Amino acid sequence: MSKDTEIDMKDVELNEVDPEKQPMTGDGQAAAAEKNGSVKLKVPEDEVTFTGLSKEELMKVAGTPGWVRTRWVLLVLFWLGWVGMLAGAIAIIVQAPRCKPIPEMNWWNEGPLYQISDVKAFSEGLGGVEGKLDDISQLKVKGLVLGPLHTVQPDKPVTMDLQKIDPAQGTLEQLTAVLKKANNKGISVVLDLTPNYLGADPWFSSAHIDDALQQVKAAADYWLKLGVNGIKLSHFNLASNSSYWSQLQDDVQGNRTEDTKKRYLLMGTVEHKTASEVSQLLNTSGVDLILSDLLNNNSGANRIVDMDNLHSQQRSVGWGLGATQQDQLSKRAGTPALIRLYQLLLFTMPGTPVFTYGDEIGLQAQPQGEKHPEMVWDIEKEPSEGAAHNETSEAKRKDYADVRKWFKSLSDLRGKERALLHGDYYPLYSSASSLSFLRVWDQSERYITAVNWGAQKETLRLKLEPKEGVELPKTATVKLSTDPKLEADSTVSLDQIELEPGHGVLLQFPYTG
């Protein structure tokens, strides 16, 4: 074979390619698919759209008997459902228990009163009081009781001027500044106008009562116009029988407004009176608030009886331990644990708690013969690293800080909880050195106070006399406690509560209907 012929034969072989290896056209693909056992369908490029019924067709169908009945059935079901829900809502409202109306509360019922009997010991005079109002405001105090501040020499009536501030205490301008800042912080200011506060008899003598009371009346008018929110008189019962007493009442209470936050307070203190006598004074003297020394009686049974006698008049009753004599809690309570116990008791009793400056930190009272201790400030500031400090002083600072924290928690709680603010009171238990009571208001949380100020551990078995709508549960939750064995949020059986000596607990349980 010639060379040319060999080349031509190779060209023919190259052109004769296996059909399976040839690129597929449309027909070829179909054939291949058939050959491989599958069929490939060609989908039209134009999509089919659903047009639904026309208006004429819908109108024709809507008028048929079946659709007319269906529409009527749906309409009736809708209105029956609506009427049923309305009837259910009305039934719930009608059957729901009615909320008890809130009693009228004056500003002195809404929080503790804070006495500053010696402004020099408190903050180096009136000028320093203004700067301490921020600290006082943190305690949720509603009223500041200042003084007495007026000039008078002990047992010398002719030296008394109730409208003049003793220069050693401060100036009129400083008092005005205190009034302005206190008002801005929602704190009312009460001025103590006890005539002979430095002498033996607060009214000099029975022969001077009428004259002193006339001066008190004139001074009350002067100070109230200046912006003071009330006056306080120690041993007011000695003067309440005077013919001038009603005139003083008219001056303080005569122009009383409907706004309970702007009313003037006429406050008096009494000593060595029974609860029945305090109740009678409230009914006959017309004072707005009486602070007594009933808590000085150390018997739990007597304290429970006193609360029983006065709880119905709680919006006119002030409670304090040493406050009547303007003493600190520590003078009678002693240890930080007992101070916290009495703070718990005062904040949860039915009435207005009254404290003397320093009670919020457990300030130690002065030795006998020295009336007012100096206030301690900046107790929450820890000493800087490397700074020299006395271990005893540091321990005392921590005690003060702990007591203040406890005081604030109680004051906050009382301001929020209606049961503690103005709730009903029920005694549960009492002994020589312990007591317990229940505070209830309508559907709000209920609170039980239990305290043991004795030297021995005591088991309190709580029992409530049958009362309509009020029952004790089997257990309650610890809200606040000074007893290390009763931790917050733990559950306690009310059949028997064991309290360590010098400790107290506040328990909480819900309204269950």
Automatic annotation (TrEMBL):
Domain Glycosyl hydrolase family 13 catalytic: 115-414
InterPro entries: GH, GH13_cat_dom, Glyco_hydro_b, SLC3A2, SLC3A2_N
Disordered: annotated span: 1-38
Gene3D superfamilies xrefs: Glycosidases (3.20.20.80), Golgi alpha-mannosidase II (2.60.40.1180)
Transmembrane segments: 72-94
Biological processes, Gene Ontology terms: carbohydrate metabolic process; L-alanine import across plasma membrane; L-leucine import across plasma membrane; phenylalanine transport
GO molecular function, one term: L-leucine transmembrane transporter activity
Source species, domain of life: Eukaryota
The entry's keywords: Membrane, Transmembrane, Transmembrane helix
SUPFAM superfamilies, sorted: (Trans)glycosidases
One Pfam family from the record: SLC3A2_N
Regions of compositional bias (Basic and acidic residues) in chain numbering: 1-21
Protein name listed in UniProt: Glycosyl hydrolase family 13 catalytic domain-containing protein
Organism expressing this protein natively: Anabas testudineus
